[in-house]
């Protein structure tokens, strides 16, 4: 049983890893039409994430694989039930990848502005769709006795899910702006710095509304906090991280601010996960149909083997990821090899 | 519309399109390592120039490969949830292992490979290239492991659960090293090296034919790629391919019968060179070499090869396509031996290769043939596995989604056809532009002289600090 809990925790960590690492890539994509004013500045945006975005996206691939292996029933139900939404996620993921790779391959302004548009729309789309999907998971889904979800795309677009989607967009845009303040220089840097606090305020406002609505309306998530109030330290820590990030931005200590921005993302995700526990997917039809970390999991054999592999593999991943970030540290300079 | 049939079409389409790219990533990766080693040994700037050029090509190939590969990972859940439930314990863990061990390696070091030329000295850059190429091969290893488990499942027990039957892992070692795993792995790796080498040969020959200012670089490219192509094409059919055929004979005999169009149990079974299966009359027409199949399958010309009639008809794969895909692959394999030997002969015959327009043109076109060969090879494996999705455990018709509606898969099929069509055109267009432009001069690529770049771990993490 402890293995199921460990894998739930690991899965949350992987998703947090994705939101933190690829989150700033998405934020950079969302911000770039608003902040970068010419080709040179757009390339600074693109190359700020150029050497690392592909590695960051692997967290999502790992999340998919971990879900498939550890909780196969959730993998099967969730992705088949959200079919059209998943196809849209795949579409925007593909579009973002090729937009980054293709954009600077040709000098033509029309070619470049087309891919700039695709890069923006795809980044925004990924953030929105992930947010809406997560909103639906918090909302609960119509899981039937056979474990399957019968819903169409329209059913998924509830006001609550859209609120989570928009909040996610602003969360990642803020995160991306803080990242950019370590990477941009000159007039672009001034513009980024100008925007960071404004984005933070917008996110903070949206997030406050979201937390309020969740606490009042979503018993499945908030019940645990009413029954075990000490857990409030988790969303409390997330809130504190926002404030520290804000203070660090004001002192222009962007690396520390970025660290706390990442802590905030992790804190919010963990708060939601603690609220859901031990459910992974909550059924709106009958709570006995809920898919939990116990009834939807793989056997202890598989979970043990996977845990060993994770313990062997992840230290290497963290080590060389850190090495790569170190080598590409500092502000972006455009060269002949750049995107 | 039938959502199951459309899901099959969609998976075949997306997997086939995706598989254009991974063999190139592996093959080009191997050859980029050779080029990098050549630079370290000789310090001849042409190798460095070629590294910059081929790394850019690699970036393009890799991007489309990654973009189309992510689709594969989620399609099991979206279109094949009954399959996902059945195999999650085993197949899922192999996919997850690919992520942790291999894909992170590729993704993490890709940035250093693409942009490292001006950040790292040649040794460290080569290390980054090696890590990416190693990651690509390692990635293929886990994927083939997972696919091999679908072909020859082992180390499991099928248990009834409230959510249907599930295969639980009983022996991790056995699920990993299934009987078909190693032959399939080597067969695929070697095919990938041939494909990568064919792309380099094609571009090198093109430089000699049409981009005269790069003729010398074209020769250097061919010198690296030709030996790889010749050696592996000679070994592929009689060694790696034959071992794979032997594995099919023992583990999936009905698949072998379909591949060769053998209807009755036959001693001294002939091998068909080209042919046609007449399903109505249950015969196979074609040019046949006597006893060769028995020899290849069992190492004995008198051995009996089991025919289709030894198996229930509802376990036969689709015959015609399995047969034709397999024979196209084999015949192309023979053609590659011919092309390789021809080019090698003209190379050793006083370097006449550089002037033989005809042979250079053949080399230009070989890449298309190798791509066709790798894809029909996959088709043989996957069409030949039908009607099973997991060999003799789960049928493909029972593996789909009970909640998927026909129009939804029609929409997603339309989306993939349109998107992949555009992607393919853009990929070819950009690749062509890159090739026509040729390698940039080193002066325009290098921001700092190569000697000033940090080339040991110590230099990267200590001295380079603000140097």
What does this structure look like?
The complex is a heterodimer of chains A (339) and B (467). Helix content of chain A is 78%, strand content 1%. Chain A has 339 residues and is an all-alpha fold. Chain A has one domain. A two-stranded antiparallel sheet of chain A has the order 1-2. The longest helix of chain A has 34 residues, at 2-35. Chain A is globular and about 60 Å long. The model of chain A has no long low-confidence stretch (mean pLDDT 90). Chain B is mainly α and 467 residues long. Chain B folds into two domains: 1-180 and 403-467, no CATH class; 187-251 and 253-384, no CATH class. Chain B contains 15 helices and eight strands. In chain B, the strands form four sheets. Chain B has a two-stranded antiparallel ribbon. The longest helix of chain B is centred in the middle third of the chain and has 37 residues, at 215-251. Chain B is globular, with a radius of gyration of 24 Å. Chains A and B meet through helix 3, helix 4, helix 5 and helix 13 of A and helix 3, helix 4, strand 2 and helix 13 of B.
Q: What does the largest sheet of chain B look like?
A: 2 strands, antiparallel
**What's the helix-strand series of chain B?**
HHHHHEEHHHHEEEHEHHEEHHH
Largest interface: A-B, 72 and 78 residues
Broad shape of chain B? globular
Biggest sheet of chain A: strands side by side, in what order? 1-2
The ordered H/E elements of chain A are: HHHHHHHHHHHHEEH
Q: How many domains make up the 3D coordinates of chain A?
A: 1
Helical percentage of chain A = over 70%
Q: What are the segments of chain B in which pLDDT stays under 50 over at least 5 consecutive residues?
A: none
Largest β sheet strand count, sense and barrel closure of chain A = 2 strands, antiparallel
Fold blueprint:
The complex is a heterodimer of chains A (339) and B (467).
Chain A: H1 2-35, H2 39-49, H3 53-70, H4 72-81, H5 83-102, H6 109-139, H7 153-156, H8 159-183, H9 186-217, H10 219-227, H11 233-250, H12 254-276, E1 279-281, E2 291-292, H13 300-327
Antiparallel strand pairs in A: 1-2
Helix pairs in contact in A: 1-2, 1-3, 1-6, 1-8, 1-12, 3-4, 5-6, 6-8, 8-9, 8-12, 9-10, 9-11, 10-12, 11-12
Chain B: H1 3-18, H2 22-42, H3 45-79, H4 81-115, H5 122-151, E1 156-161, E2 164-169, H6 172-176, H7 181-210, H8 215-251, H9 253-260, E3 266-267, E4 271-278, E5 283-289, H10 292-298, E6 304-305, H11 319-348, H12 357-383, E7 388-390, E8 394-395, H13 406-437, H14 442-445, H15 457-463
Antiparallel strand pairs in B: 1-2, 3-6, 4-5, 7-8
């Amino acid at each position: 049983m402890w293995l199921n809990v460990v894998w739930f925790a690991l899965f949350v960590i992987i998703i947090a890893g994705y939101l933190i690492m690829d989150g700033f890539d998405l934020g950079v994509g969302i911000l770039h039409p608003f902040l970068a004013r010419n080709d040179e500045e757009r390339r600074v945006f693109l190359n700020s994430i150029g050497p690392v975005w592909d590695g960051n996206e692997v967290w999502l691939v790992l999340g998919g694989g971990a879900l498939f292996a550890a909780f196969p029933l959730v993998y099967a139900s969730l992705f088949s039930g959200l079919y059209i939404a998943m196809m849209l996620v795949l579409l925007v993921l593909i579009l973002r990848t090729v937009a980054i790779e293709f954009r600077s391959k040709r000098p033509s302004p029309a070619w470049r502005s087309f891919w700039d548009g695709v890069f923006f729309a795809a980044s925004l789309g990924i953030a929105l769709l992930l947010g809406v999907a997560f909103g639906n998971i918090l909302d609960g889904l119509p899981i039937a006795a056979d474990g399957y979800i019968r819903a169409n795309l329209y059913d998924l677009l509830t006001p609550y899910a859209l609120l989570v989607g928009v909040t996610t967009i602003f969360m990642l845009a803020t995160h991306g702006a803080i990242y950019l303040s370590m990477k941009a220089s000159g007039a672009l840097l001034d513009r980024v710095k100008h925007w960071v606090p404004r984005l933070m305020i917008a996110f903070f406002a949206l997030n406050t509304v979201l937390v309020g609505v969740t606490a009042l309306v979503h018993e499945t998530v908030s019940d645990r906090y009413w029954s075990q109030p000490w857990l409030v330290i988790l969303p409390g820590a997330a809130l504190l991280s926002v404030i520290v990030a804000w203070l660090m931005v004001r002192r222009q200590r962007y690396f520390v601010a970025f660290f706390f921005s990442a802590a905030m993302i992790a804190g919010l995700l963990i708060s939601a996960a603690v609220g859901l526990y031990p459910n992974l997917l909550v059924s709106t039809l009958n709570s006995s149909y809920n898919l939990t970390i116990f009834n939807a999991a793989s056997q202890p054999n598989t979970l043990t083997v996977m845990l060993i592999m994770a313990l062997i593999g992840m230290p290497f991943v963290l080590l060389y990821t850190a090495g790569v970030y170190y080598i590409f540290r500092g502000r972006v300079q455009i060269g002949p090899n750049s995107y | 519309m039938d959502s199951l049939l459309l899901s099959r079409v969609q998976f075949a389409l997306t997997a086939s399109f995706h598989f254009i790219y991974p063999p190139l990533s592996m093959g080009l990766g191997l050859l980029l390592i050779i080029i990098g080693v050549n630079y370290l040994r000789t310090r001849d700037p042409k190798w460095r120039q070629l590294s910059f050029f081929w790394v850019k090509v690699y970036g393009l190939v890799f991007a489309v490969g990654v973009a189309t590969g992510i689709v594969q990972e989620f399609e099991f859940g979206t279109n094949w949830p009954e399959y996902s439930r059945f195999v999650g314990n085993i197949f899922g863990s192999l996919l997850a292992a690919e992520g942790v061990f291999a894909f992170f390696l590729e993704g993490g070091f890709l940035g250093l490979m693409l942009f490292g030329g001006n950040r790292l000295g040649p040794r460290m850059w080569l290390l980054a290239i090696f890590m990416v190429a190693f990651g690509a091969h390692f990635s293929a290893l886990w994927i083939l492991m997972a696919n091999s488990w679908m072909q020859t499942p082992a180390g499991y027990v099928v248990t009834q659960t409230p959510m249907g039957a599930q295969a639980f892992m009983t022996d991790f070692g056995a699920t990993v090293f299934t009987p078909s795993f190693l032959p399939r792995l080597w067969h695929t790796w070697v095919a990938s090296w041939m494909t990568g080498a064919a792309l380099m040969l094609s571009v090198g020959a093109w430089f000699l034919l049409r981009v005269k200012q790069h003729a010398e670089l074209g020769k250097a490219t061919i010198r690296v790629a030709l030996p790889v192509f010749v050696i592996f094409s000679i070994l592929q059919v009689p060694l790696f391919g034959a071992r794979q055929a032997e594995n099919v004979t023992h583990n999936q005999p009905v698949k072998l019968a379909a591949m060769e169009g053998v209807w009755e149990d036959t001693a001294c079974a002939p091998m068909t060179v080209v042919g046609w299966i007449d399903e109505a009359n249950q015969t196979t027409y074609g040019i046949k070499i006597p006893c060769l199949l028995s020899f290849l399958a069992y190492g004995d010309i008198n051995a009996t090869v089991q025919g289709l009639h030894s198996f229930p008809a509802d376990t036969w794969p689709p015959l015609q396509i399995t047969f034709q895909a397999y024979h196209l692959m084999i015949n192309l394999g023979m053609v590659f031996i011919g092309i390789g030997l021809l080019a090698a002969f003209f190379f050793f015959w006083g370097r006449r290769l550089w002037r033989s327009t005809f042979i250079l043109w053949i080399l230009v076109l070989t890449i298309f043939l190798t791509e066709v060969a790798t894809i029909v090879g996959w088709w043989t494996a996957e069409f030949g596995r039908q009607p099973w999705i997991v060999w003799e455990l789960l049928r493909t018709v029972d593996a789909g989604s009970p909640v998927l509606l026909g129009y939804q898969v029609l929409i997603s099929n339309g989306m993939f056809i349109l998107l992949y069509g555009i992607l393919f055109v853009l990929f070819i267009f950009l690749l062509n532009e890159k090739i026509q432009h040729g390698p940039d001069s080193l002066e325009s690529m290098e921001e700092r002289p190569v000697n000033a770049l940090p080339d040991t771990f110590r230099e990267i993490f200590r001295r380079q600090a603000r140097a």
